[in-house]
Amino acid sequence: MTQIYAITLRKGGCGKTTTAVNLSTALKERDKKVLLVDLDPQSNATLSVGINPIELKHNINDLFTSINVSTQEVIIKTSFGLDILPSHPDLAKTESGMKATQIGVLRSIIEPIENQYDYIIIDTPPSENYLSISALVYAKYVLIPVQAHFLAMQALNQAMEDIDKVKKGLNPQIKIKGILFTMVNNKTNIAKSIIAEVKERYGNLVLPVEVSFSVKHVEATLAGLPIILFDPNHQGSIEYKKLAEVILNG
Question: Are 35 and 60 in contact (CB under 8 A)?
């Protein structure tokens, strides 16, 4: 059965895209069939795997706005073999016009090709909007990347509230897979205190993996490659491979 993950938090700069891209790639490297879905109009996941959304004939926005384009037509295979539903800045206009009755559209877009994959990883926008909610309505699991930063608790609490609302209504089966600390710098007292506070409140949900802060992640993004391929021996690569193992082991 296909495992569908939404990577979500209502805060930018927390490592959502880096996590979505590298988790997808790590799972692919373990011979799993993986689809990365870029649901963010900023198209960062698309750019991070070396694809310029402006140059594409089709993108995920077409699937929200046209009945003449199939999901299979939009899927692109990256240079390293990962399938992606690429995003485009036009998706922002579509989202601004969405109504509450349309939050099930994402499910109808992906379900026709769902059984082709072992894992579907959805990168969501860093805000509360219908695109983010549609991902939660469709997903089976949620992974929450949290930067060890003083604003983390507020964003994390908001994410928990969003998930709880969806669980009580449109998707009773959704489960929180875990909280992933990202951009961790254990040398700072702020990082240590935030990690301690989150573990105290949500201890059973904190994953046994932390992603360290490193400019190498930025370099990999600029190169259009997941860090796992950009620098396989880097600490960040090792950490995301560990995350993939956690996901694979249930």
Answer: no
Cβ pair 242, 209 in contact under 8 A: yes
State residue 189's pLDDT score. 85
Q: How far apart are CA 127 and CA 177, in angstroms?
A: 20
The two structure tokens encoding residue 30 = 């373990």
- Strand ranges (E), the chain: 3-7, 34-38, 76-77, 83-85, 119-123, 141-147, 175-184, 206-212
The dihedral region occupied by 64, where left means phi > 0, alpha psi between -120 and 50, and beta the remainder, is: alpha
Residues of the chain with pLDDT below 70 are: 12-13
| CA-based nearest residue to 106, from 128, 136, 141 | 136
Whole-number Å distance between alpha carbons of 19 and 21: 6
Q: pLDDT value at position 2?
A: 97
Could you tell me the strand order of the sheet in which 141-147 lies?
76-77, 83-85, 34-38, 119-123, 3-7, 141-147, 175-184, 206-212
Q: What Å distances lie between residue 125 and 6, 20, 128, 238, CA to CA? A: 11, 12, 8, 26
Asked if 133 and 99 touch (Cβ cutoff 8 Å), the reply is no
Beta strand 175-184 pairing with 206-212: parallel
Residue 220's pLDDT is: 96
What is the C-alpha separation between 8 and 144, in angstroms, rounded? 5
Burial class (CB in 10 A: 0-12, 13-18, 19+), 156: buried
Report the pLDDT value the prediction gives residue 22, as an integer from 0 to 100: 98
DSSP code at position 75: -
CA angle 174, 175, 180 (to 5 degrees): 130
